[in-house]
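In the present case, backbone shapes were mapped to integers, as reproduced here:
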Amino acid sequence: MAEELLKVEGLRAGIDGKEILRGINLTVREGEVHAIMGPNGSGKSTLSGVLAGDPRFSVNSGKATFHGIDLLTLSPEDRSHEGLFLSFQYPVEIPGVTMVNFMRAAVNAKRKYFKEPPLSAGDFLKLMRQKRAIVELDNKLASRSVNEGFSGGEKKRNEIFQMAVLEPRLSILDETDSGLDIDALRIVAGGVNKLKTDKNATIVITHYQRLLDYIKPDFVHILYKGKIVYSGGPELALELEEKGYDWIKQQVDAE
């Protein structure tokens, strides 16, 4: 059996005194793709923020273990160094910082964490060229400031490029399909699929089945009112697409 990468047990968390997650249980193993779906306000982005260490959220109780390490005790930077990657729903712009400098700093910070020597400028540029090809990222975009003046599709493609460079063990894609046209969706999903190995895993957070036509999940979880109320295979997403979220609300609220 594949090694357990992430184990979340009884996780309760919220923001500004309001509890949003009300007992999340989730296990992700190496080589797996998990899709988390649910209506607005169900806690999907809160879950990704809590796992990544967003300081806006407070954990009330529960545990999250990442390849044997207590994830909730780590700083956001150390979670990243240990192999957790979050693709944002709305990537931010960083004027004045080029992608080359940004990514070289990120790579060398991770290498320093593991007491490895920094990459030379030449070796890093070689790495950039290799990874850029995975998501068909234009060389001109790589030399510009981070996300500045990028279209929505370019920003999302840029995030998958960052994921390719950092080679995380667990990638959380928070509504990475938001605002993408069909061509951008195909390129972004293709990049995610090319980066999949039997040693890493992906959590895809989405409202829609269309992303799951490209990134095939092994498991689908339905999040509603801060809890995972249903789990199943890919067919669960198709059923949800057919019946809509009202079906979930009626089923759960009736219990």
In short: The mean pLDDT is 89.
